[in-house]
Amino acid sequence: MSVTLDDIRAAAGRIRGHVVETPLVRDEVLSARLGQPVWLKCEYRQATGAFKLRGATNAILSLAPDALARGVVTASTGNHGRALAHAARALGVPATVCLSRLVPGNKVQAIRDLGATVRITGASQDEAMVEVARAVAQEGMTEIPPFDHEAVVAGQGTLGPEIAPLTPDAVLVPLSGGGLAAGVAVSIKALSPATRVIGLTMENGAAMAASLAAGHPVEVAESPSLADSLGGGIGLQNRVTFAICRDLLDDAILLTEAEIAEGIRHLGRAGHVVEGAASVGTAAMLAGKFVPQGPTVTILSGANIDPALHARIMAEAA
């Protein structure tokens, strides 16, 4: 593995004080319905509303002073950009975030509010990454990728040791570029080898799931989704996350938009206002696409949903 448990433990020490250990909360309704304990890892309670703060903080704290002085740049579907902007501001480092036109306006504004320069370009994350490459080559900025980077994966992996003491039968992880899934899989498989790690994503535009099925990284067309954070390609030259996800994930499950919406509604009724990407584990259990065989943890990855959209989804249940 290009990322090890030792890397993850080092990352945990590095980011201590910059992120919080989020709570594990039992979903009593789902536990009763399914006959197995279901735990929610409430990662949306990070300062930036998503798990991405772990990886971005570890990556930026791993940089040499000269790299920081040149400023950092990234492409993002929203949450990584917000996390990087937050970490950069805390260290007084200039940050530029490249976004596609598919990124929701509330996420764009949140990044601007943290003082980062925002560049909106193209209709996909892959097109936004072209602007990142130009900024690195022509402006000398230092790239911190959203997922395919050892320090980012190690940072996301710090979630694992917070879950492993439960020795769950399964951990359900939102699956996009694979930074979270890879990091959690490395730590969980090292600390609780019998635990299954399952990736969850949307049916349309799921690049990592398509790549795993093909046996190599592939491109997919992006389309709007309630799980917008799970959009974007994994990169045809993917160095880190594809191999780890291929070797360590036990399964990848795809969800329809209606199933994702039902996951959002279920969690909203329990007081967890989360985005579509955070609901996919819950959605899979509600839809019967994942049936717990023992204690199960699902990661609520982020809360950065447009309030009007959340209200509309909740109203549809009435």
TrEMBL record:
Gene Ontology biological process terms, A to Z: isoleucine biosynthetic process; L-serine catabolic process; L-threonine catabolic process
Pfam families: PALP
Domain of life: Bacteria
Entry-linked InterPro entries: Ectoine_EutB, Ser/Thr_Dehydratase, Ser/Thr_deHydtase_PyrdxlP-BS, TrpB-like_PALP, TrpB-like_PALP_sf
Record carries keyword Lyase: yes
Domain Tryptophan synthase beta chain-like PALP positions: 16-302
Record keywords, A-Z: Lyase, Pyridoxal phosphate
CDD domains referenced in this protein's UniProt entry, alphabetically: Thr-dehyd
Coiled coil residues, start to end: none
Record keyword Lipoprotein present: no
GO molecular function list: L-serine ammonia-lyase activity; pyridoxal phosphate binding; threonine deaminase activity
Cofactor(s) essential for the protein: pyridoxal 5'-phosphate
Membership in a protein family: Belongs to the serine/threonine dehydratase family.
Name of the featured protein: Pyridoxal-5'-phosphate-dependent enzyme, beta subunit
